[in-house]
């Protein structure tokens, strides 16, 4: 129970800060919207139907902007703030989990907001049981946030952090992308979504286990 209270306290702190700053709604979301409409300009729209681009564009936006949300939050925490958390007795795993929870909430909201825009602009094939994508997006956002938070901690204090962190996140996020895109493809083809969902769940569990094992070492290295 102490771990959950500490996790919620860190997540609540980050969400309150974001609520006051409004960077996701004022900066990240508008850029995501622009990306929805700009990406087709790089393709031959005469040879490629817009509906065929819907899923790739959506997952590209989900990865890039979801990663940006998490890395921006992780980068805003200073070494002094981390030391204060240590003095307060905050579990290092709870600190990472709390940051990941707040980032996942913001990423999930971003995905829900951009989804209808992709559907309206690209006019893809109708998707049966579209509500299944809600837990899928939540699993994707959770896994991506855990991964990006870990990458942010691993590169904390490095001059090349802004370049190294994405290089860590993108290849390791492939299972999340594969699982989420497989669920969407299965819905379109009216097949079972079990395989894609299992990939997402196992990826999230593996990342959670990594947080539990590496949190203490990361705390010592970054404080």
In short:
This protein is mainly α. It contains 9 helices and no strands.
Structure overview:
The protein is mainly alpha-helical. The chain has one domain. The protein has nine helices and no strands. The mean pLDDT is 83.
Our Rg estimate from Cα atoms comes to 18 Å
DSSP strand tally: 0
Q: How many DSSP helices?
A: 9
Provide the domain count: 1
What tags apply to this protein structure?
223 residues, 9 helices, single chain
Write the topology of this structure.
Blueprint: H1 2-21, H2 23-38, H3 50-75, H4 79-87, H5 92-122, H6 133-154, H7 161-172, H8 174-188, H9 194-222
Helix pairs in contact: 1-5, 2-3, 2-5, 3-5, 3-6, 3-8, 5-6, 5-9, 6-7, 6-8, 6-9, 8-9
